[in-house]
Amino acid sequence: MPNVKVFDMNGKAAGEIALSEELFGAEINTAVLHAAVRAYLMNQRQGTQSTLTRSEVRGGGKKPWRQKGTGRARQGSIRSPQWTHGGIALGPKPRKYKVALNKKVKRIALASALSAKASENEIIVIDGLKATEYKTKTMVNMLKAVGAAKKALVVLPEMDNMAIKSFANIPGVKTTQANNLNVYDLLNYTQLIIAKPAVEIIEEVYKSC
Q: How would you class 147 by CB atoms within 10 Å of its CB: exposed for 0-12, middle for 13-18, buried for 19 or more?
């Protein structure tokens, strides 16, 4: 069972916490991690791109010139793909990029991502991570005190607008809630800063999923 040091917001050691072996000490499955990241990125795409075919471009109803006798190639419409301002041949049309993963694969991917962070000592647990005012400087000082990297994902136990807005102006730092983790963010950010109450929520939510 992996143990992680707990710090307060001033960077002073405040004990240790034992993390779930099932979530933070699991075997890292790179194939499943790849599938989860790919699904996440594909599902971010809106798929609304659309080009006009020759039938959708305005104009072109009249034949440009007669069929024979001009010495030029036969043309039926100035909106054919070979004409400037004509339609687009084989261009993109609206489509869905959605990729579905089953529940078991999602759980394995999340456990693999959390275990990877734990094995690389990239998890920092903060006791009493809470904002008492809208103050970015307070959060900057806290991150410096615990030795956080420039790219950090801060996991809060619940929606805390004051803390979220205090972190919002710090480059490379993103906040999320314990019940809203995703594999892409876990892998994309160098360090995982978790509020101590959020650890219990993560283990409660994702061990049973």
A: exposed
Please say whether the beta carbons of 54 and 140 come within 8 A: no
Strands 173-177 vs 13-18: parallel, antiparallel or unpaired: unpaired
Distance from first CA to last CA of the chain, Å, rounded? 20
Query: What digits encode the pLDDT tens for the residues 51-106?
Result: 999 999 999 889 999 999 999 999 999 999 999 999 999 999 999 999 999 999 99
Q: Of 8, 2, 18, which is closest to residue 195 (Cα–Cα)?
A: 8
> What pLDDT is stored for residue 208 in this prediction?
58
DSSP SS3 for 52:
coil
Cα–Cα distances in angstroms (integers) from residue 148 to residues 20, 32, 141, 142, 190, in the given order: 23, 28, 10, 9, 9
